[in-house]
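Hi F.,

I've been meaning to write this up properly since the lab meeting, where we talked about keeping a consistent format for the predictions we share between groups. The idea is simple: the sequence comes first, exactly as it goes in, then the structure tokens exactly as they come out, then a line or two of notes. No screenshots and no reformatting. I'm using this chain as the first example so we have something concrete to point to.
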Amino acid sequence: MEGGTQEERGEGTRQSIEEIVDLIKENKDTLKLLDCSYLHINPEGASRIAEALSHNTHIVNLNLLKNEIGDNGTYFRCCLNILNLWKKRSMRCGLIKSSWTKGAISLANMLKGNTTLQSLSLSFNEIGDDGGSALAEALTSNTTLLQLYVLGNYGIQPNTRAKMKELLLRNQEHATTSLRRPPPGIPTPMTYVRQNSGPLRKHPPP
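Output, unedited:
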């Protein structure tokens, strides 16, 4: 049986919005992964989660995969079953707007100030290009988010997706570089290496 508390394993999160928000606000250092997938969270619920996350400094992975967006969400699922191709083409052309936009924009605003979250999954939430653009804009100032999943959100335009990808690659490169180089103003540490059988010499790390 795996060790650790329920919260440390990322469990105990499939609850009501009130319980989820309270859990986030507790800001426990043991809670790193918050799995809120398939919870029927609507835009208002997403906004409340985003607000709570603005003050959380420990959650690094948030999963909001496949949540609900109200009546429009029910309509979209019917379209998927009946007129799937029409729906995809219409959303790509910007003919359909999603009611998830409010929730997506709230999450985007949260990302502008959050420096802890590294992975965010918003796949299959029927986010439109307005919400996608807000998320992409947030990434221009957020340098700590490394993964953003938006699969199945057909309303997000290709150029918006390209901007997201570009900024995420920038963040990933920055994170990798930060592991190799000290922050500005910090002297480069010296390591002692022995060359063959000669005396010890100082060399900077590679």
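Notes:
The longest strand covers residues 191-194.
The beta strands are 33-35, 61-63, 119-121, 147-149, 191-194, 200-203.

If this format works for you, I'll send the rest the same way.

G.
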